[in-house]
Amino acid sequence: EVRLSDFDYELRADRIAQSPVEPRDAARLLVDRGTHPPGHRHVRDLPELLQPGDLLVVNETKVIPARLALRRASGGAAEVLVLEPLDGARRVWEALVRPARKLRPGEQLFAPDGTAVVEIGERHGGSSGDTFEVALLGSVDSLDVLQQHGEMPLPPYITERLAEPDRYQTVYARRPGSAAAPTAGLHFTPGLLSELEALGVAQAKVELVVGLDTFRPVTEDDPLRHVMHTERYRVSAETMERCRAARRVVAVGTTSLAVLLLPAWSL
Question: Is 172 exposed, middle or buried (0-12, 13-18, 19+ CB in 10 A)?
């Protein structure tokens, strides 16, 4: 029997980096060497670890500034974290809101300058159960609303704000939509990717839109009873064919790996 407590371990606060290392590829890399002790390297050493014919698969999703720090008409603080658009125009979103027990359908939330940004809708009836439908207000595109008033939704163990929001994007990010970054990819630089390409390591792209479960803790004592949120993904037929033909497929991070392991795929 598996229990949530089986995964408990001590991690000292000074072991949780609060600011990204520079340059990106200076991040440390633990190398599994089978029966030998693990190797301690850096991401910049990948050209020494990969070989011609390998295929690097990356998640090209792009993080949106999905966290909105707002205020109620009464002056109280409120926070909205948009997760997934529920309509084609991307005006209505599924979102986490705080304080969830106090906010009511129809209530508007405001930016510090007094601009109405969000209107609270009904509690969402999906599998997650603790989210709301919210409408982004204003005459501009909803992604522009987020760009004007939102900020990058950092993981809860990061307490310092980012000086440069682009540092929480991969260098190959293309399609806006994720509420969090595919973090393994943050350590790649254009120079490193070019070096790998020159070595004969090709690159293929997939997309998995990172959503609620990055932020939602597991609360069930039996983790097998934890209800998972759904996430959208995309993988092309070309990428699948390249994976089949590759000498070795190297998935960058768990999101890329999850896409490749799914039993069904869509164009």
Answer: middle
Q: Give the model's confidence band at 45: pLDDT under 50 very low, under 70 low, under 90 confident, else very high.
A: very high
CA-closest candidate to residue 4, choices 162, 217, 211: 217
Q: By C-alpha distance, which of 121, 147, 133 is closest to 68?
A: 147
Determine the Cα angle at 241 with ends 237 and 243, to 5°. Answer: 115
Going across the sheet that includes 233-234, the strands are 233-234, 202-208, 54-59, 248-251
Q: What is the pTM of this model?
A: 0.85
Do residues 180 and 155 lie in contact, with contact meaning Cβ atoms separated by under 8 Å?
yes
Tell me the CB-side half-sphere exposure of residue 137, using CA atoms within 13 A: 16
What stretches of 13-115 adopt beta strand conformation (E)?
28-31, 39-42, 54-59, 61-63, 67-71, 77-85, 92-98, 108-110
CA distance 192 to 50: 12
Q: Which residue reads 């929480």 in tokens?
A: 168
Question: Could you report the per-residue pLDDT of 182-234, keeping only the tens digit for each?
Answer: 999 999 999 999 999 999 999 999 999 998 777 677 888 998 888 777 788 99
Rounded Cα gap, residues 194 and 192, in angstroms: 5
